[in-house]
Design goal:
Length: 281
């Protein structure tokens, strides 16, 4: 099992968003993620913005959904991510045209009413609440009347790594909420409908998706969940929890495979998708 550096960041300082980890994340959750994207309601011929596209994992399916007459714009804050997406566009045959560029979700480089839909996955965890409001306002501005916004984010409130006591997991995340914007963002997804509605979108459609895996794990699941455990263990060193709990996490961080090899091992988390519609004129 490959062990990623749990503290590795992108050039823009974002954790859990480097190229290798994003690719692994998508492969491990591909079934759930593709079902989520399909549920948005993208239509043939639409112009869609992938806001915070990472390494472009969602682009092949998104291109299939909008078809040859559609168009996708893809932005990300990290230049290395956009360079990777540009290489994909150059090397692979997509179902529609794709235009990648470096860009910020807080100041979208597009004219008003440009897109039929915006898709944004695992981006708002990096934003403060003030920035989240600005991000959604920018989305509202560039979506055409009647168009859709679709925001997907992880929610760790039900995360478990059985047979590890789930209280140990929650202690780490709860302790990190006031210390790290990203950790606070892990708890924000379930409240997304309120934010989207307050921005002016209507016909709000929230949807939660459970991600769970039982022993025995496939190699890709072992790698993904093992890296996930290593990340939580690294976070445990930085937050205020008891020394006894820190020591438990140190042992897990050294050899996450030991926990995953338990015959009763079970991993659970979930993500939340919220779709809203800009009112028609």
């Amino acid at each position: 099992m490959a062990k990623a550096d749990p503290n590795k960041t992108t050039s823009t300082g974002h954790m859990l968003a480097d190229i290798d980890r994003l690719q692994l994340h998508y492969r491990a959750k591909k079934t759930e993620y593709e079902a989520t994207l399909r549920s948005v309601g993208l239509k043939k011929g639409w112009k869609v913005l992938d806001a915070g596209c990472g390494v472009g994992s969602f682009l092949p399916l998104m291109a299939e959904l909008v078809g040859k007459d559609g168009h996708i714009s893809a932005i990300d804050l990290a230049p290395e991510n956009i360079e990777y997406v540009e290489s994909l566009v150059a090397e692979k045959e997509f179902s529609c045209s794709i235009e990648p560029r470096v860009g910020n979700v807080l100041s979208l480089p597009y004219e008003d009413n440009t897109f039929d839909a915006i898709w944004s996955a695992n981006v708002i965890q990096y934003l403060t609440e003030e920035e989240l409001g600005l991000c959604l306002s920018e989305a509202y501005r560039v979506i055409r009347p009647g168009g859709l916004v679709a925001v997907k984010e992880v929610d760790v409130s039900i995360m478990q790594y059985q047979p590890l006591d789930p209280v140990l997991v929650q202690h780490v995340f709860e302790a990190g909420r006031g210390q790290f914007t990203q950790v606070e963002g892990y708890f924000r997804a379930i409240r997304l409908p309120t934010w989207v509605r307050a921005t002016g979108f209507i016909n709000i459609r929230p949807k939660t998706t459970l991600y769970e895996r039982w022993h025995p794990l496939s190699p890709i699941e072992q790698e993904f969940i093992g890296n996930n455990l290593a990340y939580v263990a690294s976070l445990a060193e930085k937050v205020e929890i008891t020394e006894e709990e820190k020591e438990i996490w140190r042992e897990i961080g050294k050899a996450p495979g030991h926990l995953m090899e338990h015959p009763d091992f079970y991993f659970r988390t979930m993500h939340v998708l919220v779709v809203g519609q800009k009112p028609a004129v």
